[in-house]
């Protein structure tokens, strides 16, 4: 029993290496930012005059309400990823928002005040086409949903289906739109491309077909793209070929009347497809008779249907964006037109007359580092004097939302591009001017003793001055109340802190926008939008020069590669300020297969980047003479590998002195059996402090620390649950030697792998036991090292010992990463992003293949935890306490200046930054450390020794006299 | 000439992981011609092992020997190889002097196929070692063939023993005549799953042990009655002693 208690105690002391945060530490070292993604639909909450809500439904399947005053989230609902959760339509009526989700699978109604679900119903199968609200006598009661073959009407109050009807001739007719004009009729509009329009009119009461019309329209192929309903049920379409409008009265059986645009004095920009923009302020009433037609990229015309005649109200040229908005009874049109290169102006025009409203100009300044505006969302309200006031939410092509107030004040900006971070790096902040001055002193060449002394004195003086200024500031701030002391971080006052805990996070997003974020506060310090980034681009970010080489600026390189063509471009920039570097990147005319960063540096301390093109030719960046010379010297020891997963081919190459390459090894994994799903090398900035592990009998088991080792994961092509397997192949990237090859039978992906030090941890789905399992492989050289001074892949003839053990994990995982510290002394933890939004810090100690099944004296000596097949999730291991991180896609870890501390950034839909202390803060004094006590004890001791010394002297003197 | 018996012996790899697979090691230290060995006890088939070492490092592969592979559940392999000719020896030393590479390659093979035509596949698997290492180890190399689960050869590796290039001159030409090759074929090992059975067994044993030991079965009070009694007495004593002491202080 005593032994068991002891064991338990040990266990507790071992596992207790992570403490939970204290209440007062919440938000002190961590922050979270929540995003929604690229906006697809947006509506302002108009049912209350003073409402502060704007509803957004996004491409990331998020439905949220934003506070229009601050831009913060009121509430947010994150649905499933992929087409299952995609939001097809957003309709708003009063305080209800109706959503069609998952290609017409679900119909949901949300209460927009609190974000609660009113009701949800499952719709009949069939792909979704359109939805609209339907009302009668100014009363909106129903929502109509049009699918490929059926149309159904649902009560707005409870979602119950009122009726469902099959659409006639749905095999031939492509029904695309549904319209209701508030007269108790629902119109389903379909088209047989290049033949005719089919209109079916249903009674809203019982779903009876009132009328069924088919109208010749051989020029029409798509209703949604080219038609709109205006006025009293006039279906208006635009035909780009004939450059004319076609009008059809839905109530009367008639022919379409053609109105050539030329007859209205309008001309379409050649090659442009005109677009119609109409508005229906109240779904229980008819749409307005005013509408816009877009004739060119920067040309809109406001037209009006007046007694069957189309009248031009106003020609807006140039105009980038237009939008209708209704406040009370007034409908106005907001038009954004370019003013000059750096600004746009937004004006309101009366929809009825096309006259400009006075005092409604708003200036929207165009930042060159921000994308162009793409859409306008206008919130209009009536002022006390019955004039129309408005605010605008601008959605730009870099997925940013900015909210503007008159006369152009940006109230807030949301960078929704950050909901899709692809890759990131953390860069040390630069030194302050004074620190740099001191550094610079050592960098410069010596020119005489006297000047050196003077230089030293001057820099010391500068330091003294800075210190006094700092003291003065401290003193000055101390007198102010704490709330007033603000330390706003701006790009100007950025500097490295004592322990390098504050860094610059450089984030690359899928939209092609780059961000520089201060890791301490999470504020965005710079942003840069890269135009013409292909939508399927792959990004690779590399730090070529850190901030350590003053006065050379730090430098990052981003490779943007089109996945289809393989063509790549290089963006070189300063990671601290975000500015594009003056260094011209090389033109890359050939598709790029591989890029690798060498530890070589040019004379300006920039690391050399090698790019391998599809002709297996290598180009270097920077490619100065110095670099080329170094490359020639080093060529025979520069190896790289290429992996073609479609053919299962791995090939190793060696660089030749003329920068061509030669194939030196080849491994082929037949794709008929298994396909390569991921390849993981080790991180180049990883340090391993101890070469081996001390065993219970005081001997040392040496780790196999091969920096060139790759962990290759394959999945079987056979998906049958009895025969599917996962393959793990450890292969040396230099020699192509297969170090270890294992198969995990009856297992399936997705596999998450972490490869570090001498271990590989992977997680998979066991099809046999239907659970998630972790497996760890550790490699050891044995009891003696082959060559302890240096590791060379070319000279390690003995295969390492391989130990492996597996465990059950009670949850699925989203992503996995290992902590990283400056010197690698601190024990390692695995950071696991769970689908639930938690980030778990699991000590690597639990994933140790040497965990003994039977406890022995030696294993106890070694502090090995006895083997238990299940890894438990302890709640205190969650590093993000209640700060849920939605849809974690990646975790980035970076060392800080403190050995105990590792900086962690988890990104997905949200971004969460924190610090972790895998071995507790052994190198930091606690916050509540008692300085008073220790100093008073010291002083007391000091005085005691002084006094006792004096006393002893006196005593000695007395004795001598005696 | 009589066939030299090949000495298969199984080695068990020392590790806590259960190795399902056994690897057959074969020593080939005979300078026989390639053609001699085609009719062996192996019901196997033969593929060429080729090597290349050129001063200009442009691969020109020549036959080094023949690998005889045995298909089936437990794959086996043996090797017969030629001696290095005088010309080749000189070239190898030359290549070693310029730090060139010594490469080998084997064709891609499917071991489980029944017919010869299905066995050979397009392409080669290649590996290399520094030529100087080859020379300094006096042609003693270890070649390992790796197969995947279904019996395709996926890789080949070559290392020399010792592996280092120390620049020692090999004077004796005889040392570079015969290959001293250790050959093996490795299939992937089965990775272990979580060991639930053993753990449960151990747990059961522990509970049994507890059941046998009556002292562990005693209730909390039965075990610690003396401590509780002591504590209670102490509390009582201190309670009865305190009021007068406190009162005394108040009075003074």
Your description of this structure?
The complex is a heterodimer of chains A (962) and B (252). With 962 residues, chain A is mainly beta. In chain A, 11% of the residues lie in helices and 44% in strands. In chain A, strands 48, 49, 53, 54, 55 and 56 form a 6-stranded antiparallel sheet that branches. Chain A has a 4-stranded antiparallel sheet with strand order 1-62-61-60, with no helix packed on it. In chain A, strands 2-3-4-5 form a 4-stranded antiparallel sheet, with no helix packed on it. Chain B is of the alpha+beta class and 252 residues long. Chain B has a domain at 45-186. In chain B, the strands form 2 sheets. In chain B, strands 1-2-10-8-9 form a 5-stranded mixed sheet, with no helix packed on it. A 5-stranded antiparallel sheet of chain B has the order 5-4-3-6-7. The longest helix of chain B has 32 residues, at 220-251. At the A-B interface, strand 46, strand 51, strand 52, strand 55 and strand 56 of A face strand 6, strand 7, strand 8, strand 9 and strand 11 of B. Strand 52 (738-745) of chain A pairs parallel with strand 11 of chain B, so a sheet runs across the interface.
């Amino acid at each position: 029993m005593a032994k068991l208690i002891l064991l338990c105690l040990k266990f507790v002391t071992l596992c207790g290496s992570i403490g939970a945060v204290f209440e007062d530490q919440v938000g002190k070292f961590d922050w979270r930012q929540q995003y929604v993604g690229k906006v697809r639909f947006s509506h302002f909450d108009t049912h209350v005059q003073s409402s502060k809500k704007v509803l957004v439904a996004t491409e990331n399947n998020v439905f949220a309400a934003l506070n229009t005053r601050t831009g913060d989230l009121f509430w947010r609902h994150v649905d499933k990823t992929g087409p299952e959760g995609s939001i097809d339509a957003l309709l708003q009526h009063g305080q209800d928002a109706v959503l069609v989700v998952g290609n017409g699978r679900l119909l949901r109604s949300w209460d927009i005040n609190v974000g609660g679900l009113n009701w949800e119903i499952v719709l009949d199968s069939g792909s979704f086409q359109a939805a609209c609200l339907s009302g009668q006598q100014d009363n909106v009661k129903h929502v109509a949903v049009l699918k490929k073959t059926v149309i159904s009407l649902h009560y707005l109050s409870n979602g119950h289906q009122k009726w469902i009807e099959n659409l006639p001739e749905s095999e031939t007719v492509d029904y695309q739109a549904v319209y209701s004009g508030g007269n108790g009729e629902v119109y389903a509009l379909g088209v047989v491309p290049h033949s005719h329009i089919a209109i079916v009119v249903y009674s809203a009461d019982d779903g009876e077909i009132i009328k069924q019309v088919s109208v010749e329209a051989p020029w029409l192929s798509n209703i949604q793209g080219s038609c709109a309903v205006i006025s009293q049920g006039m279906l208006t379409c635009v035909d780009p070929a004939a450059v004319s409008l076609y009008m059809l009265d839905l109530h009367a059986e008639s022919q379409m009347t053609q109105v050539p645009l030329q007859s209205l004095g309008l001309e379409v920009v050649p090659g442009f497809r005109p677009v119609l923009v109409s508005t229906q302020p109240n779904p229980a009433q008819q749409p307005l008779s005013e509408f816009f037609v877009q004739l060119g990229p920067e040309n809109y015309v406001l037209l009006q249907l007046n007694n069957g005649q189309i009248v031009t109200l106003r020609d807006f040229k140039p105009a980038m964006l237009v939008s209708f908005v209704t406040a009370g009874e007034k409908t106005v049109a907001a038009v954004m037109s370019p003013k000059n290169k750096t600004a746009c102006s937004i004006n309101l025009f009366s929809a009825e007359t096309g006259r400009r409203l006075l005092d409604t100009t708003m200036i929207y300044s165009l930042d060159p580092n921000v994308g162009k505006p793409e859409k306008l969302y206008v919130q209009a309200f009536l002022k006390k004097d019955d004039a129309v006031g408005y605010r605008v939410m601008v959605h730009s092509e870099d997925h940013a939302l900015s909210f503007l107030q008159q006369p152009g004040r940006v109230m807030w900006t949301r960078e929704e591009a950050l909901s899709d971070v692809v890759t990131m790096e953390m860069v040390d902040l630069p030194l302050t001017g004074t620190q740099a001055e001191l550094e610079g002193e050592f960098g410069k060449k010596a020119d005489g003793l006297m000047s050196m002394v003077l230089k030293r004195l001057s820099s010391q003086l500068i330091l003294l001055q800075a210190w006094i200024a700092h003291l003065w500031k401290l003193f000055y701030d101390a007198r102010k109340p704490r709330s007033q002391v603000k330390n706003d971080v701006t790009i100007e006052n950025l500097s490295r802190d004592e322990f390098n805990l504050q860094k610059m996070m450089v984030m690359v997003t899928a939209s092609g926008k780059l961000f520089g974020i201060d890791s301490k506060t999470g504020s965005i310090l710079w942003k840069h939008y890269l135009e013409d980034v292909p939508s399927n681009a792959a990004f690779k970010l590399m730090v070529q020069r850190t901030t350590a080489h003053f006065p050379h600026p730090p430098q990052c390189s981003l490779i943007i590669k089109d996945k289809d063509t393989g063509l790549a471009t290089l963006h070189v920039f300063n990671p601290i300020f975000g500015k594009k570097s003056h260094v011209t990147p090389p033109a890359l005319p050939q598709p790029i297969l591989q890029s690798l960063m060498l530890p070589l540096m040019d004379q300006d301390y920039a690391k050399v980047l090698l790019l391998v093109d599809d002709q297996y030719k290598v180009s270097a960046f920077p490619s100065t003479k110095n670099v080329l010379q170094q490359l020639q010297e080093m060529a025979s020891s520069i190896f790289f590998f290429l992996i073609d997963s479609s053919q299962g081919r791995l090939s190793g190459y060696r660089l030749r002195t003329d920068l061509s390459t030669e194939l030196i090894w080849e491994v082929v994994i037949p794709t008929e059996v298994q396909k390569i799903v991921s390849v993981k090398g080790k991180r180049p900035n990883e340090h391993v402090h101890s070469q081996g592990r001390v065993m219970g009998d005081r001997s040392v088991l040496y780790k196999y620390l091969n920096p060139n080792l790759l962990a290759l994961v394959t999945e079987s092509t056979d998906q049958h649950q009895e025969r599917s397997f996962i393959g793990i192949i450890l292969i040396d990237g230099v020699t192509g030697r297969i170090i270890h090859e294992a198969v995990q039978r009856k297992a399936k992906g997705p596999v998450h792998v972490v490869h570090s030090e001498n271990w590989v941890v992977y997680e998979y789905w066991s099809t046999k036991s239907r659970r998630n399992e972790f497996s760890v492989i550790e490699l050891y050289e044995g009891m003696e090292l082959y060559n302890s001074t240096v590791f060379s892949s070319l000279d390690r003839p003995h295969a390492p010992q391989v130990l492996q053990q597996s465990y059950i994990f009670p949850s699925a995982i989203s992503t996995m990463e290992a902590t990283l510290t400056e010197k690698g002394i601190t024990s390692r933890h695995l950071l696991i992003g769970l689908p639930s939004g938690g980030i778990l810090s699991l000590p690597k100690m639990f994933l140790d293949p040497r965990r003994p099944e039977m406890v022995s004296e030696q294993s106890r000596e070694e502090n090995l935890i006895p083997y238990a097949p299940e890894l438990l999730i302890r709640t205190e291991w969650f590093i993000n306490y209640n700060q849920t991180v939605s849809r974690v896609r990646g975790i980035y870890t970076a060392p800080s200046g403190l050995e105990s501390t590792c900086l962690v950034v988890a990104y997905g839909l949200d971004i969460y930054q924190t610090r972790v202390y895998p071995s507790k803060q052994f190198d930091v004094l606690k916050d509540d450390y008692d300085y008073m006590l220790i100093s008073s004890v010291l002083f007391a001791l000091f005085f005691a020794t002084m006094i006792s010394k004096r006393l002893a002297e006196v005593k000695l003197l007395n004795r001598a006299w005696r | 000439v009589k066939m030299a018996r090949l000495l298969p012996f199984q080695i068990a790899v020392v590790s806590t992981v259960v190795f399902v697979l056994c690897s057959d090691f074969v020593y080939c230290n005979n300078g026989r011609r390639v053609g001699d060995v085609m009719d062996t006890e192996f019901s196997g088939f033969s593929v060429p092992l080729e090597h290349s070492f050129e001063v200009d490092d442009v691969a020109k592969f020549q036959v080094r020997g023949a690998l005889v592979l045995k298909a089936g559940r437990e794959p086996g392999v043996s090797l017969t190889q030629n001696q290095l000719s005088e010309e080749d020896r000189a070239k190898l030393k030359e290549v070693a002097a310029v730090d060139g590479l010594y490469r080998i390659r084997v064709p891609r093979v499917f071991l489980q196929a029944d017919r010869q035509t299905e066995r050979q596949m397009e392409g080669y698997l290649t590996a290399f070692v520094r030529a100087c290492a080859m020379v300094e180890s006096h042609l003693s190399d270890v070649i390992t063939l790796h197969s995947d689960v279904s019996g395709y050869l996926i890789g080949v590796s070559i290392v020399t023993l010792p592996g280092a290039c120390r620049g020692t001159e090999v004077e004796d030409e005889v040392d570079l005549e015969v290959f001293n090759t250790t050959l093996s074929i490795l299939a992937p090992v089965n990775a272990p799953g979580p060991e639930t059975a053993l753990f449960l067994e151990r747990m059961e044993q522990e509970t049994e042990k507890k059941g046998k030991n009556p002292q562990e079965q005693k209730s909390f009070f039965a075990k610690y009655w003396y401590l509780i009694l002591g504590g209670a007495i102490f509390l009582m004593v201190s309670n009865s002693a305190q009021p007068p002491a406190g009162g005394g202080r108040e009075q003074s």
